[in-house]
Design brief:
By secondary structure, the chain is mainly alpha-helical. Helices cover about 50% and strands about 0% of the residues. About 0% of the residues are buried.
C-alpha cells in the first residue's frame, strides 16, 4: 500500500508523540517496585526529607541529575 508523504509523516509524528508520552510515564510517573512502589519523584522527595535511605547513602545531600 502506498501512503502519501503527508500521511506518512503525520502518522510518524503521532507515533513519536505517543512514544515520548509513554516513555515519560514509564520512567517518571509510574510507581517502581524497586523504590517501594513509589514514583521516582515521591522517592526523591522522601529521600531529600531524610525519610528514606537510598542504596546505603545516609543523610548526604545530593542534587537531582540534570539532563
Amino acid at each position: 500500500m502506498i501512503f502519501s508523504m503527508k500521511i506518512f509523516f503525520s502518522l510518524l509524528a503521532d507515533a513519536q508523540r505517543k512514544l515520548l508520552s509513554w516513555k515519560e510515564y514509564y520512567n517518571f510517573l509510574r510507581p517502581h517496585s524497586s523504590l517501594g512502589n513509589k514514583t521516582p519523584e515521591e522517592f526523591w522527595q522522601e529521600y531529600e526529607d531524610g525519610l528514606v535511605e537510598a542504596r546505603g547513602l545516609v543523610s548526604t545531600r545530593m542534587t537531582p541529575p540534570t539532563s
